[in-house]
Amino acid sequence: MADDKENGTKNGIRIDDAIRLKDEINKSITYQGFNAKEVEELAKMTAEDYRKIRLKYGEQLKEWTIIPNFIWYALSIVGILLIFWNALWYLKLLGLASVGYSALQIGSRVGNPEGFIIGYEWGLSDGVYKTLGIDEKEAADVHDRSIEMEMDERLIKGIEERKSERNEGKS
Q1: Burial of 165 per CB tally in 10 Å (0-12, 13-18, 19+)
Q2: pLDDT tens for residues 9-33?
Q3: Can you give the residue ranges of every domain in the chain?
Q4: Are 22 and 159 in contact (CB under 8 A)?
Q5: Are 39 and 45 spatial neighbours (Cβ–Cβ below 8 Å)?
């Protein structure tokens, strides 16, 4: 069959019906009763989850650290002063060592929360996939199918809005 632009069909099926059909097929493919979009939602962290993790990390950091951050900042400033001050060579070396070690301490304290959160996210998604019996290949398929479902839902919403605008224009 040839294209029929007047009816919006391609080879006997309307384009909007084809999009709806594809969306329904994607929704019917389930993993332990959840479709791909629902699986992705389960594996995604919420803003409340992020808040709880940051609070938990803050509590753990208080237990893990003996020397507070402001001490490391002060030590790095003293080290910089020793380096640029006309001091003896071994004091300059001590200043360089204190700046380096302070920078490492501060850097690890700044970077650790992000690594902690990323690890938590990966653990959450891996746990959801493992619980639902989804392997790595299927996880990639779930992710792709979830994106397709999101795009299809937006297309269907746009088609419905255009259809309602046309109907209002005819009235």
Answers
A1: exposed
A2: 556 788 888 888 888 988 888 888 8
A3: 42-151
A4: no
A5: no
